[in-house]
Specification:
5% strand, single chain, 377 residues
């Protein structure tokens, strides 16, 4: 099990923040073997496909630029001019090949780790010039793995090269008996096939290196339990601070809720433990809404505000608990409580009309029908 410098085991999976911070520092998984394999394999395939084109273009360059006229022999600058044009023609000929190589290099790099630009990684770090740290990297497990990969690559490519030279020795010798254009075409063909076969041997190495690099990257980012706790404190804040913030948020929510109590049509009470304030506007609401609710001290505050603002209070313990436990703030009451609340509001509106106009005193319902599934006894 990996350990950090404090001796603690890195047994925890890296968090999203840990991975994000690593990418900002330029730490992303990369596979040099995949890049090498892709460049050599696709470069060889491109060279093999473009061999006839290269052969004809090279023959044209040699014919036009290295055929001297009589006037060129007596001109000191003629050879330099011919050489300059030959180099320009050769570079123009190789432009498609270079474009393919650049595209392959970019795609192979992005295949493992994705696109990542880090300004921090571009900054010079003099610690990299420390010979002691350099020796530690060489004799580390990662350094041993790189050594084994290099030895395996040498044996693999060396064996493949010796085998191809053995099988193609006659064809290589026969190139000297061909004319220039045919020799160029055949030589490029042999180079392309040999490069393609040699680079194909690196596929095996890339198939081993890519999973290893991903595993090593994940292993290096693993965290100790203390690192996870420290990161949690850094991102989420200390528990006492979070509790204080929650308390302040609750206080703000209660104050806002109390501002809605004077606008309520009725406050339903338990009578002491629970209090729920309801409001109903038939022009804007499909059903009555809960504008405030609370228990114990909050319920007492709701009753005090309701009494100070002449909001009717009705004692209905079963209905008060049903509304409190089944409805959130600013939500409509459940359909199962429509009948009970309708009876309650009818009584409240009759009571309001009596206070404003006089007449017979309305009688409050003895009970309010609350469905069994909504009860909280």
């Amino acid at each position: 099990m990996a350990e950090n410098q404090d001796g603690q085991e890195k047994s925890q999976e890296p968090t999203a923040k840990k991975i994000s911070d690593a990418r900002k520092k330029g730490q992303v998984p990369r596979s040099r073997e995949l890049n090498t394999m892709a460049l050599t394999f696709l470069g060889s395939a491109t060279l093999l496909l473009m061999a006839p084109y290269f052969a004809s273009r090279m023959n044209a360059i040699l014919t036009t630029q290295f055929t001297l006229k009589r006037v060129d022999i007596f001109d000191p600058n003629a050879m330099l001019a011919h050489l300059t044009r030959a180099i320009g023609d050769a570079l123009f000929m190789l432009l498609p090949f270079f474009a393919v190589m650049v595209a392959v290099a970019l795609l192979a790099t992005l295949a493992v780790g994705g696109f990542n630009v880090s300004a921090e990684a571009m900054q010079p770090k003099f610690s990299k010039f420390n010979p002691i740290k350099g020796m530690k990297r060489i004799f580390s497990a990662k350094g041993l793995m790189e050594l084994l990969k290099s030895l395996f690559k040498f044996l693999l490519v060396g064996t493949a090269t010796a085998t191809m030279l053995w099988f193609w020795s006659d064809e290589l010798i026969a190139l000297g008996n061909l004319n220039v254009e045919l020799a160029l075409s055949e030589g490029l063909r042999l180079i392309g096939w040999s490069s393609l076969l040699l680079s194909s041997t690196l596929i095996l190495l890339a198939l081993v290196d890519v999973p290893f690099q991903l595993w090593q990257y994940h292993k290096d980012l693993k965290m100790t339990q203390q690192e996870v706790r420290d990161e949690y404190k850094e991102t989420e804040g200390k528990p006492e601070v979070k509790n204080r913030l929650r308390q302040m948020q609750r206080e703000i929510a209660v104050r806002r809720m109390m501002q809605e109590v004077p606008k309520a049509d009725v406050v339903v009470t338990n009578p002491t433990h629970y209090a729920v304030a309801l409001r109903y506007d038939p022009d804007r609401m499909q059903a009555p809404q809960v504008v405030a609710k609370g228990k114990d001290l909050v319920a007492a505050n709701i009753r005090e505000v309701a009494e100070a603002n002449n909001v009717p209070q009705v004692e209905a313990p079963l209905l008060a608990r049903a509304i409190y436990f089944n409805t959130e703030l600013d939500q409509q009451i459940p359909a199962g409580l429509f009948l009970a609340v309708a009876q309650l509001l009818a009584y409240v509106f009759q009571l309001r009309a009596y206070r404003e106009q006089g007449g017979d005193i309305p009688t409050a319902p003895d009970t309010y029908p609350v469905p069994e599934e909504l009860r909280h006894d």
